[in-house]
Amino acid sequence: MDNQHLNEWFSKREKLKSEHTAEKLFPQLIKGSIIALSKAITLIESKKENDKKEADFLLQKSLPYTGKSKRIGISGIPGVGKSSFIENLGLELIKKGHKVAVLAIDPSSEKNLGSILGDKTRMQLLSQNENSFIRPSPSNLSLGGVAKHTRECIYLCELAGFDIIIIETVGVGQSETQVKKMIDYFLLLHLPNSGDELQGIKRGIMEIADGIVVNKADGEMQKKAQLAKKMLENALHLFPKNDINWTVKVFCSSIYDISSYEKIIQNIEYYFLHLEKNNQLNEIRNLQDIYWFREYINEQILSYFTESTNAKEELKILEQKIYLKELPVYVASKEFLNKFKSKF
Amino acid sequence: MDNQHLNEWFSKREKLKSEHTAEKLFPQLIKGSIIALSKAITLIESKKENDKKEADFLLQKSLPYTGKSKRIGISGIPGVGKSSFIENLGLELIKKGHKVAVLAIDPSSEKNLGSILGDKTRMQLLSQNENSFIRPSPSNLSLGGVAKHTRECIYLCELAGFDIIIIETVGVGQSETQVKKMIDYFLLLHLPNSGDELQGIKRGIMEIADGIVVNKADGEMQKKAQLAKKMLENALHLFPKNDINWTVKVFCSSIYDISSYEKIIQNIEYYFLHLEKNNQLNEIRNLQDIYWFREYINEQILSYFTESTNAKEELKILEQKIYLKELPVYVASKEFLNKFKSKF
Fold first, then answer.
1. pLDDT tens digits, residue range B145-171?
2. Which of A33, B64, B77, B264 has its CA 20 to 30 A from that of A74?
3. Which residue(s) pair with B188 in the sheet?
4. Which CATH fold would you assign to the domain A3-63?
């Protein structure tokens, strides 16, 4: 490259960079620009210190405009038909005048990320619709990082005018309880099997569901789906009422029966009416915010300690001593802290 | 009091104090002295700095002698008949040559502590038996404090030769997951009711049970108990296998049918054989130790921050800003830390 080209390249690069900054992105986001939304999310994902500062600034500026969407978590094991379900549900919601954003997260399986989630080709009709936005989560983040990232994406989507935000997870149990703490309504998708096969549901997931769908309830599976629905209803019966006094319902759904989506959308709407009637939506979201605030503090303090090489070394030595029954656990924890308090 | 009396009183007091110290207690504990065990637990409960040091020293000295008991958690809502159940189970175990310690914890209800737990009169036969030891947890501790205290009591009881340690909780859901992390086998007691009434089981508790007992299965309730057993078995069916590949069984039990305890004891014995066959008991306990080690570090760091008046003030201010949407959660957490890092 000669000098002129190099200069052009640099100025182009600087221009691109400045387009990313919060001040420029904000008005575009307010107008609902999908391109700005993509850029803003990239900014949030960035690991550069300067980008992080810009991202924080953008979020702070956005905050008063957020919170106006219905945040819906949708989960289910691979093969349950999440993509087709979300695509059809999304299209039905758009028909009703909504703008639908889909954020897909799968912190547990980096390898399969491309095939399971985020692949636009798997929701072709929805992704081509101008009232939709689909974005996968980056795969190189810890569970805590995914949580932070996804929460912030929700805000940005809300700023850009999306009034339905769907958070998609693979339902392997690890991330769902975290996701539950950043959404309003949690929908669990289930295959039309029952009995022993219900065991596929991971511990705890059914308990956090606000609605359950037996998916692929068509053709030969229709009878089995009805049986699964009954089994799930019985199982739900065994759980105590949730904190918000909401009765969890089970639905059958099929891509060949559009009316099945109608019933689920109705249930979601009832849910929000139920929360708003009792003035609980804001309360729940505030509690969620405080939860994350404390989580982040916690996480940052701990990472300060555990990221240091000295601390890692010391942890290893102390855990060895615990293993060999040389030190009681509590005494070991005090030893660790005394050593590192002075360095913090 | 004249001078002579005062001096006598002081020297007596000093003597009493010195009897409490680790060096004196240790050999008595090894010999199985119940009086020494009571004193040692009092030492652990003490909030005086000097006592704390002695307690740490005692625990460290005891460590190589611990781990030889079967640690059993027993939980159930008030009214399920925990006291009679534990008394009968304990007496049966003693008949088989065991020494049984019962540690009762109830961090959730300070007021009812006396009536629900720890009251020796409620297990009269067991408490009078020389091969038993019954001790309630102090009520003025946080959940974390109870955990620390109870774990250390387990060690002391083991040092004193108790080979069955029963940890009793009231089954309100809060403390059970913590207790699960310090015991080997978790037994859930249930009333002979079913269907809607199964809802009394708190979320998550059934999932951590290694065995379930339908208690008070006698007289008119026998039929209902059988039905409840079936319902519980069906419910268990819906859960996936636990990590250790153990099949959870449901038993009916009644104080009028001593053979019912026999079956439960057998199940506990099978459980330990199952773990030992797969070499899992030590592994599980080591993982538990590491869990508590990290918990304690976590807790101490956080308490350092949140116990400071300045930190409390700052948290309040920041939470207010989050509530008013002035600050994004993550930014607020960073602000908090930057403010306090320099002071730590």
1. 677 889 999 999 999 999 999 999 876
2. A33
3. B75, B212
4. 1.20.5
